[in-house]
Structure formats: C-alpha cells, structure tokens
Amino acid sequence: MLGVGRSLKNWRLWGIFYALNFLFAAVLALPFVVIFMRSVSKSLVGTSLLSGFSYRWYVEFMHANGKYFSSLFPQVVLLFALYMLVEAFLAGGFLSSFAAGGKTKLTAFVSHCASKVFPILAVTLAEVLILFLLYELNTVWAAANREAARNAVTDYQVLHAELWRYAVVVIFFSLVSIVSDFARAAVAIDDETFIGKVMRGLSFVMKHPLSSMGVYGGAVVFSASVIAGWFYLDSIIRALDVNGVVLEIVVGQIFVLLRIFSKLIFYAGEAALYKENQIEVIKVKPEMLE
Amino acid sequence: MRSPLGGKFIGSRWSYRRRFLLHTSVVFSFLLFFSCVAVARLSGKRIANYSIDVQLNPRANSIDGREVLVWHNTTSHNAASLFFHLDPNAFKSDNTAYMTGRGRTISASACGWINIIGIADLRTNTDLTDQIQYVHPDDGDTSDSTVMMVQLPSPVGPGDSIAISIDFNEQLPEAILGRGWAPGSKFYLVSKWFPKIGVFRNGAWNCRQVRALSGSFADFGAYDVKITVPGGYKVGATGEEVGMSPNSNGTLTFHYSTDDVHDFAWTASPDFVSITREFKYPGLPDTKVLLLLQRDHRSMARRYLSAVDTAMKYFGLWYGPYPYPVLTVVDLPRTMRGGRSFAENRSEFESPTLIAVGASVYTLKNSLSLEAATIRELGYQYWYGVVANSGFENAWLDKGLDLYSSGRVLEKAYGPRASIFKLGGVYPVYMQPIATVLGVPVASIIGKVWIREPYEKLSRYLRNSKTNAISDYGRRSPGRSASNTLLYEKPDLLLWMLEGVLGKDTMATVLKTYFNEFKFRHPTPADFENECQQMSGRNLAWFFNQFVDGTGTVDFAVKSINYFQETDLGTGASSYYTTVVVARNGEVKMPVEVRLALDDGTAVDTLWNGESRWQSFRFKTSAPPDYAVVDPAGKIPLDTDYSNNSLRLHSYFLPVLKWAGRIFNYFQNMLLNMGTLV
C-alpha cells in the first residue's frame, strides 16, 4: 500500500513512462500501419476488417509483405534494445525517487536517473546473461525431454516430464527476476560495488522472502487483473463504427496506463520495502576506532 | 547372414524354414488354388483375388505369410511376366527412394523389409523363385527392391487366369507413417505388406516404385485372409470377420473375407478397447462400425463415433451409400502417431474399410481436429477405396476430391470452425489443455494462431504457386512443401473453384455421378473432366488446361474507377457515367464477374471473359458509384491478391483507424512486456 501511495504522489512519472512507451510504439508501428493503409483504405477488405477479420486478406497480405516485414526485424530488435536501455536509465530515477518518499521534482528525477544508469545497466546485463544461460539450459532439457518422449506410450507421460521442466523454469526465472529487482533497488538506494549489488539483492530476498515475494506477487496479481479486465472489455467492445473504434482505442490506452501504473507500484513497493529494511551502512572513519 | 534383398535375416533358421515352406507349400497351394479359383469364379470381373495365411510373431516384430493369387488377364494382350509391389522394402534402409524423398532416417532396429521365400506357378506347379528380378521402372536405381518381376514359363493369354503361390517373411518397420509396430506397446498396424500384383493395362504393367508421397494403384478383387496372432490379441482388418478359431498352441486365427477391394490391411494388439456399433440412417444401408481404441483414449470414443456417423451420413446421401458392410476405425497409440506432439490429432492411414487416426487427449473438442481427421480418412474410402484412380500418376485427384468433400461435410456438420479463444478479440487461437478435470480443461496454454483451414491451404499454395502443374505429379517438384501443395492444397482449392464455376448443386451432381459411374474402377482425370462437362453442359477445357495442366496463377484487379455526372436540364434528373478498368495480372484467363456498386445500395453486374490483359467497362446509372469489384462472390480462391479485387471511389479510413490503433497498442504492450526485464 505504501507503494501505491508513493506512486500516486508522483503521477508526473507516469507521464514520462507513458511518453516513452508511446514514442517507441509509434515508431515501431508506423511502417506496418502505412502498408496496412495502402492495402485496405480503398479496398472492400476494409469493410470485412471493420466488422471482423478477413483470413483470406491476412494470408495474402502476409505473403505479399512477409519479406519486407522480415527485413525490418533488425531495426525492430534495435528499437526494443534501445527501449530497454532507456527504461534502465529511468529505473534508477524511479527507485531513488520512490525511496526518498514524497513528491519528486523532475530535475531531481533526471539527476537520479543519470547517476544510477551504469550500475543499473550492469545489474540488468547480469540478469539478461543469467536468463540467457537459463534459456540455454532449458533448451537442452527440452531436447532431452523430446528424446525421452519419443518412446513414451501415452500423452500423459510426455506432459508430466514437460510439467517438471515448466515448473523449474518458472521458479528459476522468478528467483532471478526477484533478486535482480532488489539488486537494482540496492544500486539505487545504496552505493555498492557490482558484486555487492547482486549479493545485496540476494541477501535481501533471503532475509525477507515473504515480503519481497509479496511485492513481486502483488505486482503480478495486479497486472494479471489488469490484463484480464482488458481481455474482458476488449471482447465486449464492438468497434464497428466511429464511436466503437474510438472507445476501443481509449480502452487500449487506459490499459497501457494501468500497466505502467502497476510497474510504478512495483518500483515504489520495492523501494519502500528495501528502504524500511535497509541495513545502515556506516563508513568507519579512523577516528571512530578510538 | 544377409537376405537376398540386402536386409538382415533374423536368424539362420530361415534357410531351413525356406526349404520346409517350399516343400509343404505345394500341397497347401493346390488346396488354396482350387478354393481361390472358386472365389474368382464368383467374383466375375474381380481381377486380383488373394487368399492369404499370415502369422504375427510379436517377439521379432515380423510376420510369416503364404499367399495364393488368382489373377485374370482381362486385357487383349499376353502377359509374359508378372509384376509385384514389395512396398515393405521401402523401409529397408536410409537410402531407399522413399526414405530419402521424405528426408527421414531410420535406425537398423526400425527397418522393415520383405523376403520372398518361394514363388510358384500353380497352373504348372513350377517353382519360379529363380525367375525373380527386381526392376526399377521409374528411376533405374538398382538398389531399389520395391518392384519384383517374375518371368512366366508361358504367358497368360487374354481372358486367361493364373494362380501363383508366394511364401514370404516380413520384418515390420517401427512406426512409420502409421504402419508397423509401435515402440513401447504391443500394437501392430500391418499395411501394404503382402506381394501385391500391379495393374496390367495396354500390354504393359503399371507397377511403380515406392516413392515419397506416392499412392497405391491396384486392381479390385476378393480377399480371403487368415491372421494368426498370440492368444489375447484383438484384431481388426479390411473386410468382415467371418470366423475366429483358437489353435492348439494358444494362438488365435481370425478369418476375414471381403470383395471389391484393392488392398488389405490389419491391426492387432492385446490392449485394444473395442467398441462395436451399427451405423443406421434412413435410406442408407446399415454398416457395422468397429472402433479399436487405445486405453488412454477411452474418453474420445464418442467423438470418433460421432465423426464416423456424420461422414457416413453425408457421404452416403451426397455421393452414394458406403458399399461395404463394415468399417474399422483404429486409434493409433502415441508412438505410432506422426509428429508425436502431445496435442495433435492427425489422420494417418487408410485402407479399404479400415482407417487409422492418431488422436491426442490434449486437444479441445472445439478444435474439431479429431473429427476432421476421421472424416477425411473416411472420405478416402470413397475417393481412394471405391473410386480408385492411380495414386501414383494422378494422386492429386483422389486427394483433392477427399479434401474438398470432407471439407464440405465438416462445414455442413459443424459450421465454419471457430475458436472461443481469441487474442485481442480477433485472432482465434488453438488452446492446448494441460490439465483437465472430468474432461473440462482447467489449465491451457495458447497455441498457434488459428487460421481457418481453407486459408491455411491458401497460405501454403501461395508459397508454392510458381511450381509444376499438378498433373505433373508432385514428387518431381522442388522440395517436400511444393509436393504437398501440388498433391493437396492446389487440388483442394481448385475443386472449390470448380464449385464456384459450376455452382454448388451441379458440383454435387458431378461428384455423385462420378462416384457411381466409376465405382470399383480406375478413372483418370480425363474421366473426371468429361463428367464435369457432361453434367454442366459446358466446355471446361479452359479450366482443366490451365489449373490442372498449367502453372499459371490467377490475379484479377480493379485498376481504376472514374465517373462524371450529367444532369438533364429539363427534368433535373442526373445520370452517372462510370468507367471501371479491370486487369488480369496473372496468367490464367477465365471469365470473371465485374460488379459496380452504387451509393443507393444497388449494383450493376457484368461478365468479363478475362482474355485480354485489361478491359474498360462503362456504366450509366442513376446513382453515383461507390465501388467496383471483380469476382464479388469470391468464387476464385486461387486469386493471389484479394485486396486488389475491389476499389472504392473514396478512401474509407475507419478500418484503418481501428487496425492502426490495434497495431499500435500491440507494440505498446510488447514494449511493456520487454520492460519487465528491467
């Protein structure tokens, strides 16, 4: 709840996050929308697409433009990577601002961002590398399962072997994510060496498993509720006329804002929890030894 | 020790067994010969009639068999030799044309082959074993042993018959294309297993090597088969079970008999759950349906039987009654199922009166994939089992007819397939249940996007639209995907297009007449074309020349639409003169409808012969135009660009806004998803 309060107080930060997301999404969507517009605006296919979906058009459209879309793949990956870098840049500011409590001025936010960007990136890079390693291990495991499943007589046997893999992947993925998140909090709130950051994140999660999982779990539950709500609303909106289309777009943007809110709540909750349980690091001066 | 075919013998006991079988076979063969001659007399024009005794040896996954064939030469030419299919040799090693064509490898323990132990002419009681030669009519590959030729001491004259006895031993392959033995379970599906005589036509044998994607081609006849299996095994087979007797050594012998079939397959397992029921529908003959289920698939019995009922009803009503008294449906174990994905239903195998389907318990009922697989296999009973065009030269015809007609049945019985699960409210997706309680999925994972079946075919066709003609059979095409397109997707789509050209009712009449006229015969594509022309009263050479024998693509487009208004100053009434330019971007020339839709909701139609590259049409109307469209009813599913079929006078941006918003929103969410890592 502390996270919700701190997040609500800093509503301007929502705007920054939303603007970032909007800008990147607009650049990414532009080539697709232009091609789509050329294909549909003067064709009767548009009518089918307004009232539902035209699989025939979709198949032919993808066939005609598939190579072009594939050629955009490197640029799309680059933009996604850039987006993650910018988000890493902002993460330090979010965490520091929320840890400080109260309303954060934009200048202070930018200063926090700038001062924490490299350590945060280092933690994120470490996380990505560990996740990549996990991914590789998972691939090996999946291949071994496939091999073992070749002679499985029933579908149940295959599924049971696969469920073990799924379970282990979910547990490790969650653990790495939680530790990394609290390591970032450690970076933003404390000044630590790189190894120290990761260890601080790990030790914090070990010391406060329930509360740290609680923050994590709370964010997951909130996000899942938002997604479920959006799925429900999306299924009942009839975007068949101007009003319906505008309503669908508005609901889509509210959904994005809520997802951003849930992310900021997570940052705020994480920062608040870390701050509350922070171990005071007192630098020992020579004169204090006396 | 090596077999004459290059495969491994199971043991040295074969040399003894061969002598024993050769000596004793003479006595038994005479008895069988006379019984077969009696069968053949009864069978009238049945050309290839078999009497076979076969024993399953589960320990070695092998069978021992003795076959007596009575073959009638119904042609006006002498047959100086006989040609036989030895299909099991296609699985002899990795290097056979079949295995390389499918891009598959096979381990030594999984190989299958057939050894001919002895062959004799029962007319003269002559041992012909030394006359065996392996021939390679298609590719000259001397390592291929899927076709056997036997030189006769004296030819079989026109109208004469010959009885041949063949002793053989066969190593069954491990689970390949729904046949052989299933690893991990005592399950056998034995198909294309016995030496089967080719088709003698115009003084030559049509007996082709086994290649990837090649179908079968054989004459109709009567089959009388005795299958001996260990005690406790259950058996299903082509035809009707006419008896079962226990033997003194604890084995069981099942006796099957049937007429007017061109192949025989059987299955055996001690683990089958067998369900028998009678298909009954007013106006159609009763049929006994035997369902042989795997134990872990008990819950799927109702779906299987419902699909069988649906197929038998509609195929029966539309084309003609199912002509056999029995149908056996075999549910394959997981290790026999192609792909072996744990959430996939696949149709796998068909033989006259017997079909096999690979089912998965992890598919939702609403996917209808099990129903589709079963109905498709039953369709093959009509378009491969009863109307039997050559599965080698004209494989596209029976496959196309099956896909088209089973698609019609699916549409009629279940409506357009749809999923209740949709992504973004639009894309239906396959949901694969990973946990169920009382059959209700409580946890599922999202599978691939559901593109409705006809469009999935279109997608595959578009990828391979620039390849051979379908009449130039598939295996000559570059790659497996192109072969599949030529054998499955394009034939199916062109038959849907033929329906668009002829009309639904005429198409139904064509297929009904074609079925009844060519029942138990070997029609060619020319026969089908003639049937279409006769029933519709139209010359359809342009259709078959371009779509079956040609490689051109179809793409009609509206290039421009312009108009001007003229007002009668006296009456004040306005007239609108609209010019519509339509173009033929593809190579195929065919008549196509052109429609001009007006602002007041009315429309003016005209027909363009599609001969020239473009054509201008001028319309005078009392209301301003709204849009122009070629092929307004969507009768040309092979048209490669649907979006250019129509052109609006004014752009319509609402759909663009809707989808631009969605695309933009998808990217926003994807970015947020990626951002969860930070």
- Helix percentage of chain B: 25-40%
Strand content of chain B: 25-35%
Enter the CATH topology name of the largest domain in chain B.
Immunoglobulin-like
Oligomer: heterodimer
Beta-strand percentage range of chain A: under 5%
Q: Using only CA atoms, what is the Rg of chain A?
A: 23 Å
Residue share in helix of chain A: over 70%
- How would a textbook summarize the main sheet of chain B? 8 strands, mixed
Helix/strand-derived category of chain B reads alpha+beta
SSE map:
The complex is a heterodimer of chains A (290) and B (678).
Chain A: H1 2-9, H2 11-40, H3 45-51, H4 55-71, H5 73-100, H6 106-149, H7 155-189, H8 194-207, H9 209-236, H10 242-276
Helix pairs in contact in A: 1-10, 2-5, 2-10, 5-6, 5-7, 5-10, 6-7, 7-8, 7-10, 8-9, 9-10
Chain B: H1 13-43, E1 48-57, E2 62-72, E3 79-85, H2 97-102, E4 113-121, E5 126-127, E6 132-134, E7 147-156, E8 161-171, E9 180-181, E10 188-190, E11 196-197, E12 199-201, E13 204-206, E14 221-229, E15 234-237, E16 240-246, E17 252-261, E18 266-269, E19 273-281, E20 284-293, H3 301-318, E21 326-332, E22 346-351, E23 354-358, H4 369-386, H5 395-414, E24 422-423, E25 427-437, E26 440-449, H6 453-463, H7 480-502, H8 504-517, H9 525-536, H10 541-547, E27 556-567, E28 574-584, E29 592-598, E30 603-608, E31 614-621, E32 625-630, E33 646-648, H11 654-675
Helix pairs in contact in B: 3-4, 3-5, 4-5, 5-7, 6-7, 7-8, 8-9
Describe the model:
Chain A is mainly alpha-helical and 290 residues long. Chain A has one domain. Helix content of chain A is 85%, strand content 0%. The radius of gyration of chain A is 23 Å and the shape is globular. Chain B has three domains: 1-270, Sandwich (Immunoglobulin-like), CATH 2.60.40.1730; 272-417 and 452-551, Neutral Protease, domain 2, CATH 1.10.390; 556-649, Sandwich (Immunoglobulin-like), CATH 2.60.40. The N and C termini of chain B lie far apart (66 Å). Residues 1-22 and 24-44 of chain B have low confidence and may be disordered. The interface between A and B is large, with 76 and 69 residues.
